[in-house]
Design a protein that fits this description.
- The structure is a single chain.
- With about 425 residues, this protein is mostly helical.
- The chain has a single domain, classed as Up-down Bundle (Growth Hormone, Chain: A).
- It contains 17 helices and no strands.
Length: about 425
């Protein structure tokens, strides 16, 4: 074809090129929607989840284990904002690729290392894996849907992707507990594969188009400062921070609670079963996010607030039952501890994304995650000073009783918090 012919011929050729480019982009964005479930699954292939306290406790005291966990959450805090900025400035695809490498490197360092320093280095790399994915995975999903003209699918799509992730956590926990029965470090080495798989899937993503102008770093900072002035954004921030603390307390204490219940070599296997059941409940909860929101408020005005209040109430109940002591009849309730996580995460993400410009979306979500993890890191440091050297029942109650009480009060306060007009 003569591209230098008449103006009409040139216009037709240019339109065909633009049309082909749009079709290619559209196909790539559809591929993102297909791959995102696999990415959520791969990044959650964390076989060490049911045994990490047991592995650390082989060579560390209870207080050191809590400090080691504080290292992880503190590192997430330090890395959250730089990773969010990288995502907003350099792109979602490469940020998610770095996340997968962080998961793989951290698992390898802890599995092959020994002692507090080596474990701490591994925790920092795991924190990098978490920080680089935080906000970026859901931003890629939302921006792909938005570019395709289907942003209202976000809550349902994210619920499905989260369900894949939690289901993978369940299977990995079951397998990790079995592997840990033979060798606790093996669960970490097996997790390296999941991190590498996540990195590989990330390379298959297409970078979604951005909306609006790309601000300079100074302009981006100004936009970030304005974000919490939006009542909807501020409300999500406060409730997500509270839920992060309440969700992680029973998570951190489940293994020593089971160890006090069983007190034998079966603890890694039983822990794997319990963690698997817990994440399966989260997978179910994630799939139910949309139906739960519709049931709580069909209009959508108060679905998020009521959903978060429901999650806090359920967690208050779980922590209260755990405080009664390690008994068999409480165990089934403990296995359901992650159900609230499953349905509250999609509700929170779907609530906040439409209020954020793409130029700061991942950065703000990173700041939101940072605030929650910083709050929990401070809680960990506080209780590590009071808990003592062993995981006694009284030590567990020192944490569980006040936590359950505060979660109960948080439920009441959340229900009283009126939703801002849309």
């Amino acid at each position: 074809m003569d591209r230098g012919g008449s103006p009409l011929a040139r216009t037709r050729w240019q339109n065909r090129v633009v049309g082909a480019g749009k079709a290619e982009l559209s196909a790539g964005l559809e591929r993102n929607l297909a791959l995102v479930n696999g990415y959520f699954a791969a990044q959650n292939a964390l076989f060490w989840i049911p045994v990490f306290v047991l592995w650390f406790s082989r060579s560390l005291t209870a207080a050191e284990v809590l400090r080691l966990e504080a290292v992880y959450y503190s590192a997430v805090v330090v890395l959250e904002v730089p990773s969010g900025w990288m995502s907003d400035r350099l792109g979602r695809r490469w940020t998610l690729f770095c996340s997968g490498l962080g998961w793989a490197a951290g698992s390898a360092l802890i599995g092959l290392g020994d002692g507090f320093a080596a474990f701490a280095a591994g925790q920092v790399m795991l924190a990098a894996g978490r920080a680089f994915a935080s906000g970026t995975d859901s931003s890629l999903l939302y921006e792909s849907l938005d570019a395709l003209g289907r942003p209202l699918e976000m809550r349902d799509r994210l619920g499905r992707a989260g369900s894949w992730g939690f289901a993978t956590l369940a299977v990995a926990s079951l397998a990790g507990g079995a592997v840990g029965y033979v060798d606790l470090r093996g669960a970490y080495l097996l997790s390296v594969v999941g991190g590498l798989a996540a990195a590989g899937i990330a390379l298959g993503f297409v970078e979604p188009p951005r909306t609006g102008d790309q601000p300079t770093p100074r302009e981006q900072l100004a936009i970030l400062r304005q974000a919490p002035r939006n009542p909807a954004v501020f409300r999500v921030l406060v409730l997500v921070v509270a839920m992060t603390v309440f969700v992680h307390i029973p998570y951190e204490l489940q293994q020593p609670w089971l160890d006090r219940l069983l007190e034998d070599a079966r603890t890694p296997v039983i822990s794997g079963v319990f963690v698997a059941l817990s994440f399966m409940s989260a997978s179910v909860g994630s799939r139910m996010a949309e139906p739960i929101a519709q049931r709580l408020d069909p209009s959508g005005e108060a679905a998020f607030t009521r959903g978060m209040a429901l999650g806090m109430a359920l967690l208050a109940g779980v922590m209260g039952l755990m405080a009664l002591g390690p008994t068999v009849w409480v165990a089934p309730f403990l296995a359901m501890r992650s159900f609230p996580t499953g349905f509250t995460q999609p509700l929170a993400e779907a609530e906040v994304h439409p209020h954020l410009p793409s130029s700061i979306r991942a950065t703000w979500l990173s700041l939101q995650s940072l605030a929650g993890r910083l709050a929990f890191a401070l809680v960990l440091l506080g209780v590590s000073a009071a808990i003592g050297e062993t995981w006694s029942v009284d030590a567990l109650r020192t944490i569980l009783v006040p936590a359950a009480s505060i979660a109960g009060l948080g439920t009441i306060a959340t229900l009283a918090w009126r939703s801002p007009p849309r």
